[in-house]
């Protein structure tokens, strides 16, 4: 890491469960965080000239799952060097995803294939000859419009439901963050 940190031309991310905090307010409940607990990790991040990526969603990524003495902590995080942040100025972290946003021209809406479509009445395998990749690409091109129509008519825009559920999850996480000791918010289901 020493060699990489001093070569500013490499893009690098470090992510995961660090089992350490970077700030005193990254734990709610349990024992109060002291600077002594976090100074070594802070020093490491500073020494390697890393910055924490912008975070979307629930501030706390870990819970002790206890009913009586709840403790919420921020242990999972992604860090990056300056070269990475310069190349990807709009990089964000969701608890499960690293989102890299390049400035791009507007392009066609992406096509998502949902396995449930194969259960629909009238669905049949398309026969295409050629290499495996050619078969996949050609089949998806042929099925793109009919499957979009099937999704719209039979399944009611599955992708929109996924987005809606993600928004509901964000609201529940927000409620828990606002009042982490509230048992009702912590046991809410989506």
Features:
single chain; 190 residues; alpha+beta; three-stranded antiparallel beta sheet; 6 helices; 38% helix; flat
Question: Outline of this structure?
Answer:
The protein is an alpha+beta fold. It is built from 6 helices and 9 strands.
Report on this model:
It is built from six helices and nine strands. It is an alpha+beta fold. The protein folds into two domains: 2-104, no CATH class; 115-155, no CATH class. The protein is flat. The protein starts with a helix and ends with a helix.
Helix content: 25-40%
- Describe the sheet with the most strands: 3 strands, antiparallel
- Subunit arrangement of the protein: single chain
Number of domains: 2
How far the N terminus sits from the C terminus, by CA atoms, comes to: 41 Å
Q: Kindly state the mean pLDDT as a whole number? A: 76
Tell me the structural class: alpha+beta
Instruction: Output the helix-strand order.
Output: HEEHEEEEEHEEHHH
From the spread of the alpha carbons, the general shape counts as flat
Strand order of the largest sheet: 1-7-3
Q: How many distinct beta strands?
A: 9
Number of helices: 6
Give the percentage of residues in beta strands: 5-15%
Low-confidence segments: none
- Rg to the nearest angstrom? 23 Å
Provide the fold topology.
Blueprint: H1 2-6, E1 13-17, E2 27-28, H2 35-47, E3 50-52, E4 54-55, E5 62-63, E6 72-73, E7 76-81, H3 82-87, E8 92-94, E9 97-99, H4 132-155, H5 158-178, H6 183-186
InterPro entries: Endo/exonu/phosph_ase_sf (IPR036691)
């Amino acid at each position: 890491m020493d060699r990489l940190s001093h070569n500013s031309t490499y893009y690098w991310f470090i992510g995961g469960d660090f089992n350490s905090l970077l700030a005193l307010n990254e734990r709610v409940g349990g024992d109060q965080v002291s600077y002594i607990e976090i100074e070594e990790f802070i020093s490491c991040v500073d020494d390697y000239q890393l910055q924490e990526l912008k975070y979307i969603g629930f501030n706390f990524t870990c819970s002790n799952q206890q009913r009586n003495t709840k403790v919420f902590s921020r242990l999972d995080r992604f860090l990056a060097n300056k070269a990475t942040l310069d190349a990807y100025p709009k990089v964000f972290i969701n608890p499960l995803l690293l989102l890299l946003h390049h400035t791009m021209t507007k392009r066609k809406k992406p096509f998502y294939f949902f396995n449930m479509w194969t259960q629909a009445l009238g669905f049949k395998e398309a026969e295409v000859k050629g290499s495996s990749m050619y078969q996949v690409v050609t089949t998806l091109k042929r099925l793109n419009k009919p499957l979009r129509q099937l999704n719209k008519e039979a399944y009611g825009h599955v992708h929109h439901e996924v987005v809606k559920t993600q928004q509901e999850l964000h609201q529940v996480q927000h409620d828990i963050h606002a009042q982490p000791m509230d048992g009702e918010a912590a046991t809410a289901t989506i």
